[in-house]
Amino acid sequence: MAEAYPSTSSEPTAEESAKNRIVKAEEYKQAGNILYKEKSYKMAIGKYHRALLQVRDIDNQRPKPLLKGLMGLAGEGNNVFKQDKNLTNEMTQQVKQLELSCYNNLAACLLHDIDPNYEKIIQYCGEVLKRDSKNPKAWYRQGVALYHTQEYKEAQNCLNKAKRSMPRGM
User: Fold this and answer.
1) pLDDT at residue 75, rounded to an integer
2) Which residue of 59, 118, 130, 157 has the lowest C-beta tally within 10 Å?
3) Where do the TPR repeats lie (predicted)?
4) 3-state secondary structure at position 59
5) How many domains does the chain have?
């Protein structure tokens, strides 16, 4: 009697599936970068979102920072990058860097909008700064967004942090 379902032996392992999703996410991010350079910001935003979706639930044990941020549930104590059981250390670092780049690039794209959503820019910069508290681009973009929301003191603090975070000689 023939089996009703195909054999599961041809299905990728969890690690292979994660690798494939990371590769796909990187492709989306690179496509977004090309669109950004072409000043197609809305289309670039779509690519960066798709990249984030590829890695969002790469392991069911990972917190989902995009959704948590959108719902206002992200807590200070969350360890966003705990080691995933299906990811190697290298893959975890790839995901971390990919998410950091995508959130930073999303903020950059939104700043180019005719009517920027400054709250969203602040949110995306916050995601970057959770991962890299010395990221000068995120501090700068967050400072600009805060300035436009008339949060002048916070904006000044962010812009000062951006300046202090800049590599020497720049």
Assistant:
1) 42
2) 157
3) 136-169
4) coil
5) 1
Q: Supply the range of the domain harboring residue 73.
A: 14-165
d(CA 37, CA 51) in angstroms, rounded, equals 17
Tokens 């950004």 belong to residue: 36
**Is 115 inside any structural domain?**
yes
Question: CA-CA distance, 104 to 161, in Å (whole number)?
Answer: 16
Average pLDDT over residues 64-79: 45
Q: Which amino acid is at 21?
A: R
Residue 60 gets which letter from DSSP?
T
Q: What is the CATH number of the domain that holds 140?
A: 1.25.40.10
Q: Which residues contact 12 (CB under 8 A, 6 or more apart)?
A: 20
Q: How far apart are CA 156 and CA 162, in angstroms?
A: 10
- DSSP class of residue 132? -
The gap from C-alpha 126 to its chain's centroid, in whole angstroms, comes to 10
**Residue tagged 């392992």 (tokens):** 13
What percentage of the chain reaches a pLDDT higher than 90?
66
